[in-house]
Amino acid sequence: MADTPDAEPSIEEQIAAYQREFQDLDPQVEQIVSALGRLNRRMNVAYNRQTSALDLTNAEWEVLKALVLSGAPYRLGPGELAKRLGLTPAAMTHRIDRMVAEGLVTRDRDEANRVRVIVEITPEGREKWLDAMRLASVFEEELLQDLDDGERSKLGEVLTRLLRRVEDAQPDAEGRLADLD
């Protein structure tokens, strides 16, 4: 097993242990799935460190990202934000409250429909989003530095196909981040 008792076993060690217990295991499939899972976890840790260095939580980053993805003027209703992030309205309200207090977003009544509330990214929130994107871009380029353009293109295509397959099989899981908060 791994060097220390608390260390995660290598993928090869994991596959060998699984094969002892489950003889029908396809080691090639397990290698791919295990590597993807570990890569995802380690990338999340790296992104978490980056957002923390910017005094931003991953939860706040997700809201800023959703607002930017909505396009200029970077405004959405709280219900739409909650739906996009897979959150309950109460959880979204709590998150927006924190972000308003931190000056990352504003929450105002829609002038066209006074019943409707609009959340909009502030210049400070947009700058934090840009800072996070700059850090992530450097990290991601370093991550993929050993792949040439053709390999990057092929990897992107293959991962997108896998993602679509999971989304088709689990349509209720689209965009759900609530389990990660």
UniProtKB/TrEMBL annotation:
It comes from the Bacteria. InterPro entries: ArsR-like_HTH, HTH_MarR-typ, MarR/SlyA-like, Tscrpt_reg_HTH_AsnC-type_CS, WH-like_DNA-bd_sf, WH_DNA-bd_sf. It holds the Pfam family MarR_2. Residues 29-164 form the HTH marR-type domain. This is MarR family transcriptional regulator. It comes from Streptomyces koyangensis.
